[in-house]
Amino acid sequence: MPLVNTKKMFENAYKGHYAIPAFNVDNVDIMKAVLRAAEKTQSPVIIAISSGALKFIGENYIRQVMDCAMKEVTVPVALHLDHGKDVALCKRCVDLGFTSVMIDASAYDFEENIRQTREVVEYAHAHGVSVESELGAIAGIEDEVVVDDKYGNFTHPADVIEFVEKTNIDSLAIAIGTAHGAYKFKPGQKPQLRFDILEEIEQKLPGFPLVLHGASSVPAASLKILNSYGGAMPEAIGIPEAMLLDASKHAVCKINVGTDIRVAYVGGLRKALVENPEKFDARVFINPAMDAVTALCEDKIRNVFNSAGHAND
Known about the structure:
By secondary structure, the chain is of the alpha/beta class. It has helices spanning 7-16, 28-41, 51-57, 59-69, 87-96, 110-125, 157-167, 195-204, 220-228, 241-248, 259-275, 282-303; strands at 20-24, 45-49, 77-84, 100-103, 130-135, 171-174, 210-212, 252-257. Helix 2 (28-41) packs across helix 12 and helix 5 (87-96) runs parallel beside helix 6. The two termini are 15 Å apart. The model is unreliable at 140-149 (pLDDT under 50).
């Protein structure tokens, strides 16, 4: 099956009240493990590649690797640039054969965000590629979300219509309380998504696909495995999966997960290394790491994104 853009995926997800999983992959092993989970659950999936992962895997490899993988895959798959920080990178990924790109100019003012996003949209659409952009401040590992009014650094619903109309984007990443990284919240802080803001945006953009970034839940079981076999990762609080499931029943058609993938992979790798000290065949260690990723993705597809069985929508 050839790679696809996200337009039809999101149309189906919106109508079916589920979300397309966008799993960040850092290497080819993780990519294969994610595709295996999508195939087993018959779920559409987005392979999300950050600029760092693109550099690590290699620009000259990524599309060829995906094309080879797709000879055996029967579910819809999009190859997506995650958080493209400049116009040139987004255009380069279009030329490399990505079927979806995200231009993240949210650090700029509103008008500059529009200008950069529109430039990417014009180039990408001419090549049949979908474009995602972002409004609002999605917190990072060290970021503080300072709320000085009802919306604070979250996405302001009053801005979304103008932004979508002036840019002609295909999907919009919104900030309603998710955060990047494993350490999203301080100890004792209660995770909370702003469903009131989500509902306001839904009302202003009926039928339009929204995206949540920074949606890892940091499962305790994955963290325990990693730390039981030599890891020293502090306890972390993620986004409750029940909240993500609720969001997927709204207009959220794509949910990004990165940290959970990394924790599962490294935990599986650490466990295999400890349990097989006499072995030196890399496959003995990498296969369990891939299995851990596949199991994690399967669980999220079935129980969080609700996208299992929707490959043929």
